[in-house]
Amino acid sequence: MELVWLEDFNALAQSGNFSRAAELRHVTQPAFSRRIRALETWVGVDLFERTTQGATLTEAGRHMIGSAQEMTRRLYQMRQEAREVAGKQARSLHFAATHSLSFTFFPGWVRAAERTSPIEAIRLHSDNMRVCEQMLLGGEVQFLLCHQHPEVPPQFPAESFHSKVVGSDVLMALQGQQVHAIGGDTPLSLLGYTAESGLGRIVSARLRKEPQPPNVHTVFTSHLAAVLLSMALEGKGIAWLPRTLAEPEISSGKLIRALDEHWDIPVEIRLFRPTMALSDFAEDFWARL
Question: Are the C-beta atoms of residues 144 and 96 closer than 8 Å to each other?
Answer without folding.
Answer: yes
